[in-house]
Amino acid sequence: MLSRSERRPVLERAVAVATASWRARALATVPSNLKNPAWLAAQAEELAAESGLKARVWDEKRLADEGFGGILAVGAASATPPRLVRLDYSPRRAGRRTPTVVLVGKGITFDSGGLSIKPGEAMASMKRDMTGAAVVLSTMAALAAVECPVRVVGLLACAENAVSGTSMRPGDVIRHWGGRTSEVTNTDAEGRLVMADALAYAVAEIGPAAILDVATLTGAMKLALGQRTGGFFATDDALAASLTASGQAAGEPLWRMPLWAGYEDRLSSPVADADNAAGGPGAITAALFLQHFVGSTPWAHLDIASVGDSPSDSHEWTVGPTGFGVRALLDWLGGDDPLAGVGA
Question: Which of 3, 9, 57, 272 is least surrounded by Cβ atoms within 10 Å, i.e. has the fewest?
Answer without folding.
Answer: 3
